[in-house]
Write a structure and sequence with these properties.
Elements: E1 32-37, H1 38-41, H2 44-57, E2 62-67, H3 73-82, E3 87-92, H4 94-104, E4 110-115, H5 121-125, H6 132-140, E5 143-147, E6 150-152, E7 155-157, E8 160-164, H7 165-180, H8 184-196, E9 202-208, E10 211-217, E11 219-223, H9 226-231, H10 237-241, E12 245-250, H11 255-266, E13 276-281, E14 284-288, E15 292-297, E16 300-305, E17 308-312, E18 317-321
Parallel strand pairs: 1-2, 1-3, 3-4
Antiparallel strand pairs: 5-18, 6-7, 6-17, 8-11, 8-15, 9-10, 9-14, 11-12, 12-13, 14-17, 15-16
Amino acid sequence: MNAIAEPNGDTPRDMDISATEPTTSTAIEGPITIIANRKSGTNARDAEAIDRALAVFGADKAELRHWDPKEDLDALVRSAIDDGARLIVAAGGDGTAMAIASSMLGTGCAMAVLPLGTFNYFARGLNLPEDPEEAARAILAGYTRDISVGMVNDRVFLNNASLGIYPAILKERETVYARWGRRRLMAHWSVVKTFLQFQRPMKLTISADGKKMDRRTPLLFVARSAFQLERFGLTGGEAIHRDQFAMLVGLGDTRADLFALAWRLVTRSMREGRDYELICASDVTVETAKRRALVAFDGEKTRDYSPFEFKMSDEKLTIVLPKDGPA
């Protein structure tokens, strides 16, 4: 849902972290490796932000490594850990954080996020400041915690995964960005364009913790972030506190329905039962009528084969929380 404008005036509160007790009282007692997307890391604004964070971490303690999405990120992460890194900082937005988290599952090495993206839902859900120097200080003063993350067909996601109109929005957004640049206004325009091109809802067969149901919907949104739901006034946060998925099934068959849903989302007037159905479950399998479908996860997307299996990761991710972060 990070393609739609946010309401103003909210203070980040709780992304829920279903996890063990803090593993250490101090997060950092060794070398730090910052990993930045090569394209983002050479962008003047992001490069300046990374330099400011490096200054806080300490030149004698931290190093910067660039990653190209075409390269083997698992190998880069392993190399950093083998070289002694005790903390790996993902410098970027939700997509970069998700990719690095996927490579760090089960390693035991701590991961933190330096928010450089457009929306930064994962970092903001942890209550990390968006200013790079403040974020670096919060990371250094933080503590570690082991958490489970969501997976769809063995792909990690930290905030959400979805089928239907939202992946289509992301696909259109890439086209719009390529022509007009990466700006929030262009992200909103991609929503409008996709809605105008909308044809018909999907036919899905959903199995949620063993209960089977058939649905017609323009959007299936599987949330793992209570913070993101709260930002838009959506229910489901309690399910995430219980270490479940909050699965929102959009209600609407027409283009007009979609515009109405988008407006209610922006104005935080979405209502369960009228605009969406909430299904809470730990294990979900979704079959689409088509053999392959576009699936989105934390702002990224891929075309994959049905059925789509949503589950919690067996391995843990060790993340750094600021002292004033979620309990």
